[in-house]
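User: Please fill in residues for this 95-position structure.
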């Protein structure tokens, strides 16, 4: 899997319904998970920011940085993200 899995119970039901995330549900050994995959046409990612969960586009969509969906600590520390509107968030994941 090229992405993250999050326990279905970890996100509020309202958020799952609002973003129609039921298509991401998978059963892994009796546990329901939401699979957020990077290599799909419109990748999304759950994040926790400013005290609430949000579903956001995964990767850079501004053209300022590559749309790889990942970054490295050295890239952040070098200031390469400083001209973007990037903010630090928590990405909850079970797997």
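Assistant: Residues filled in for all 95 positions:
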């Amino acid at each position: 899997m090229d992405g993250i899995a999050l326990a279905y119970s970890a996100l509020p039901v309202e958020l799952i319904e609002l973003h129609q995330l039921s298509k991401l549900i998978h059963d892994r050994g009796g546990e329901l998970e939401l699979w957020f995959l990077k290599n799909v046409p419109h990748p999304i990612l759950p994040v926790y920011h400013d005290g609430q969960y949000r579903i956001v586009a995964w990767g850079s969509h501004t053209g300022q940085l590559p749309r790889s969906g990942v970054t490295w600590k050295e890239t952040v520390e070098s200031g390469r993200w400083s001209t973007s509107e990037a903010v630090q968030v928590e990405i909850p994941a079970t797997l």
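For context: The CA atoms of residues 44 and 57 lie 4 Å apart.
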